[in-house]
Amino acid sequence: MRMLLGMCLFLSLAANAQGTGPCAADKEKFCAGVQEGEGRIVKCLQEHIDELSPDCKTTAEAMQAHIKAAGNACKADIQQFCAKAEPGEGHILKCLQKHHSKLSPPCKDTIKVGHKK
Predict the structure, then answer these.
(1) 52-61, pLDDT tens digit by residue?
(2) 3-state SS of the chain: helix, strand, coil percent to 5?
(3) How many Å apart are CA 108 and CA 42, to the nearest integer?
(4) Are 100 and 108 within 8 A, CB to CB?
(5) CB-based contacts of 74, cutoff 8 Å, min separation 6
(6) Alpha carbons 89 and 14: distance in angstroms, whole number
(7) Is the pTM of this model over 0.85?
(8) Cβ contacts of 86 within 8 Å, gap of 6 or more
(9) What is the pLDDT of residues 32-73, one digit of tens each?
(10) Of the N and C termini of the chain, which has fewer Cβ atoms inside 10 Å?
């Protein structure tokens, strides 16, 4: 479950740090000199978690709550279909998406809500 938590937090913060999302200003403020890619921006934002803007922090907290629910809903599916998936860079999520038709209903619903397919 910890792998899923880290992977989802990575994806959610990365998505919100780009463009005009609630973490874009925080990215500029704390991570302007950090090269994008390989999770460096997310790691930078995590290092400044206590200093993030209220909107970014609220987004991160909401994502963490969703991640916890996804971890619970998808735990058996991850073990069954994605046990060999390498943690990080979205590999577990990609694996779950690849096996979407075989996933348990709660896991499907959690992934659908989290990624708004």
Answers:
(1) 999 988 887 7
(2) 75, 0, 25
(3) 26
(4) yes
(5) 4, 96, 103, 104, 106, 107, 110, 111
(6) 11
(7) no
(8) none
(9) 999 887 777 877 888 888 999 999 888 877 877 877 787 788
(10) C
